[in-house]
Amino acid sequence: MRRWSRLFLIVFLLIGVILLLCSGALAEDKALWPQTGKNVKKSRKLILDVSYTQDGYFMAAVQKQNKHKLKLRVTKGRETLTYDLNGNAEYEVIPLQLSSGKYEVTLYENVSGKKYSQEGKINLTVKLSREDAAFLRPNQYVNYTQLSEAVAEANRQCEGKSEREAYETVCGFMKSRFVYDYIKAATIKAGMLPDIDGSFAKKAGICQDLSAIMVCMLRTQGIPSRLMIGYADKQYHAWVTTTVGNKEEFFDPTAALNSISKVKSYTTERYY
After folding, report:
1. Which long-range contacts (CB under 8 A, 24 or more apart) does 186-190 make?
2. Given a cut of 80, is residue 19 above it in pLDDT?
3. Distance of CA 55 to CAs 243, 247, 254, 255, Å?
4. What are the percentages of helix, strand and coil residues in the chain, rounded to 5?
5. Does pLDDT of 201 surpass 70?
6. From CA 57, how far away is CA 31, in angstroms rounded?
7. In the chain, what are the domains?
8. Percent of the chain's residues with pLDDT above 70
């Protein structure tokens, strides 16, 4: 009798472990992560990993460490986006947010003053698996990892919830748990990227930090979300747009904290 009781207990425990592992795997499946592959293109000092452009991103780096300022220009048709690129010879994730089509990626290196020399150019033809693919993974502007506390918190807050419920939960979380960082706002330097990990730890940030945190939390739940940058009336600003089901949603975390005066109109300059 004891033998059967022990056997039953072992089977019960094994089933419990399997269910826990399965539930964890299902939760992780919502978050998508960039990865390197074998399709690598090189041009002078520029190196691109374009193995997964169908998923809305490529990875860019310089082939050797470089102490000069580097600019990466991404052009599609008449639209051009410019990124500061690190000189550590380490990949950065660049989104393909301008939809499917032909892209031109050019590297520029600062040689003196405001003068830059072209140090590589690569053409890409991109066919996205879905048109919002670029808004489901981290990138240079919405930069988070599997170890980011914002990711873990999103999983805790949104566990078992529908997309609509998860979206509303994240909106409520941003309103109730964060404050606007007026000190950082007064001392910020041009070219600074959103700081998801640092701002989440302090529960404080400026508009781009707060918006990037929200986008991070939504993307890890499989909800396509965009970090929008442009103007709130005449003030340079950042906010969030999200697709929940088939409905486009707008949320301004800074305005939700009453840290910006009532805005009459938003004008988009770029988005990530």
Report:
1. none
2. no
3. 17, 22, 30, 32
4. 35, 35, 35
5. yes
6. 15
7. 40-135 (2.60.40.10), 149-271 (3.10.620.30)
8. 89
